[in-house]
Amino acid sequence: MVYAREQFADLELLPRRETRRRGHVLRQGFLLLMTAFDAAVFDLVRIAFRKKFFQIIGTFGKQEGITGRNR
Fold it and tell me: Structure pTM?
């Protein structure tokens, strides 16, 4: 019974501590979301390149040219 009461007391203090750390929790959540998004985009691009590499590679750099002098 004493152990359960101590655990309950710890749970009461947890929200007070988390208000200071809320920024850290939100930041960590954002970083995890961006990591998952990056992995998904990487996988999609990898699949696209494997299936249609030559069709896709032709679209890159069509409007850009390489010159020998700086502008």
Answer: 0.49
